[in-house]
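Hi U.,

Before I forget, here's the chain from the pilot set. I'm dumping it here mostly so it's searchable later in email.
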Amino acid sequence: MENEELSLPPQLLSWDEFPESLKLFMQQNEIPPDAYDIKSLSRFIRVNPFNSVTLEVLTEQLRKESPEVEVQEVGWLPGFYKVDAGVKIASVDAYKNGQIYGIDASSGAVVRALDPQPGDNILDLCCAPGAKLCMISDEMGRTGTITGVDVSLKRLGSCRTLCAKYGISNSRLFLEDACIFGFLAPTENFEDTEDVVPPLKKRKLENQSEASEDTTEGKENSEETKTPENEETDGQTEVSHTQEDGQTESMTAFFDQEDTTPEKKEAEVPRQVKKGTRKRKRKSKKGDLTNLFYSANWKYRSSSKKMYDKILLDAQCTLDASVRHILQFSKLGWKNFDEETEKRTVSLQKDMIYNAFRLLKPGGTLVYSTCSFSHNQNEGVIQWLLDTVFFR
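Structure:
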């Protein structure tokens, strides 16, 4: 027994390496240290049901690159397979042909909780980089509509690439702040345009007087990015936070470093532009909704008076429950993790979930998720919404 214990691989994360601010956060949220006692990571692959590949063929293709790879079905997530985290899929034919894509099992669980059904009109706030949006469309049988919203131009470009690659024909994307997005579901009648819910009443943000002074410098790279191996790998998470005076402040979360994995670097190399040539600007068509970034069908360029049947809000958070992110940023250098950081994050989450709720039809489904263990960012936000909407 002792020999078996000695043969176990070391932990990926060491409690001794955690900054004191994160240790205090864990204590305040009653998170046991063994929550990070992880010795290995897996990556997950989902098969495109509209362009599928068998397990045998997929395994054979993966073993050309990784001879020892074991491909395991995920019993509780149909269509999902698990492989070792180090397995590369970008050179596999099934990936090139749009038969598989990378997506975390936790993201799959969120979509299953949403329970998309054929004919639904669904809103995916914070949709980039897009793997969940693809799965939602798959679950609906490519019927109904799926509207994606994200504030990051570069990440939304990746989402558009996925929609095209995997044939997501019932989608449209908006480059917009999830706190203020207001367009309702698409319409079958192109004449009904620009329908929007009443403007939000300016809500004074909690802790506004001590708002973050950290801002994202420069603009996002406007070049369209190629699809990374794992479409659910997060890099910098940029958010747009609406202030009381109506202006927008761009801020970054606790983990705001770029993903530096080789696959991500390779995926985000911009196209070469010949000297003297001009970049083409994306032109809006007559009747397009404001900030419409992509539409798979001309009918989706307008809005109806229909609220959304279901809404997914996978919200910006402190990412303290994501071992993959903590591993990455422990190597790059810890950021300050203090009480004020979480207060700003929670205030943003409240703005987003309030806006999501007002776009939801009576009796509809709203799924809220984070990658945090924090009670304040999960149960606390839900309770705030219930108190604000129903018990005020």
